[in-house]
Write a structure and sequence with these properties.
By secondary structure, the protein is α/β, with parallel strands linked by helices. The protein has 2 domains: 2-37 and 159-189; 66-151. Helices cover 38% and strands 26% of the residues. The chain contains 3 helices and 7 strands, in the order αβαββββββα. Strands 1-2-6-7-5-4-3 form a 7-stranded mixed sheet, with no helix packed on it.
């Protein structure tokens, strides 16, 4: 039987199954990393001391969900995005892209409204919570807007376990399909009785 087993397809299938299993274990590693990250974010969420506003996504990672403040020197432009209020209503989140004194820029979520009109705001001091992006979610809201939903680390998905299960299932299904295909082929090659 082993002599008639197709060598190249078997090697290809076994390599693919090995890769799928490795991806499953990688997702399990990511699960534990994400759990640690969520614990750290939850601890930061409860801290009240201000930190410097990050200038890049890499700088933002250690200070996400912490309080910060900046001084918006000039509003470069406004954006309106789908958003949620602090009362969990859907509507519009109004974002100002600000120029800071050092020449860098920052995104400020001014607040929430149902009105898509651009708010009137020309800059100034802003306090709030650092959210992914990074962006500063103003607290209190500015420009006469209502409070936006406070950034919450529990909103971040941690679906790595389901991804791991999927990869392991893909590997199992690939093996079963290959074994069935090889059995059918070998049964067709068997001499008639």
């Amino acid at each position: 039987m082993l002599r008639r087993l197709p060598i190249v397809p078997t090697i290809v299938v076994l390599m693919a199954v090995g890769i799928m299993i490795r991806l499953g274990f990688w997702q399990l590693d990511r699960l534990h990393q994400k759990e640690d990250l969520l614990v750290r974010y939850a601890a930061a969420h409860g801290m009240s001391a201000d930190v410097a506003f990050p200038r890049s996504p890499a700088e933002a990672e250690p200070v996400l969900y912490r309080h910060s403040s900046i001084d918006c020197q000039k509003v470069a432009r406004f954006e309106s995005v789908a958003g949620r209020s602090s009362k969990d209503q859907t509507g519009i989140g109004h974002i100002a892209n600000c120029k800071l004194a050092d020449g860098s820029s920052a995104r400020i979520v001014l607040g929430w409204s149902r009105n898509p009109e651009v708010p009137v705001w020309s800059g100034g001091a802003v306090t709030g919570v650092i959210a992914p992006g990074p962006r500063l979610v103003a607290d209190p809201p500015l420009a006469g807007l209502q409070a936006n939903a406070r950034p919450d680390p529990s909103d971040l998905p941690n679906n790595h376990l389901s991804y791991a299960v999927q990869w392991f299932l893909f590997a199992g299904v690939a093996l079963v399909i290959y074994v069935l295909a090889v059995r059918k082929r070998l049964a067709g090659d068997a001499p008639p009785r």
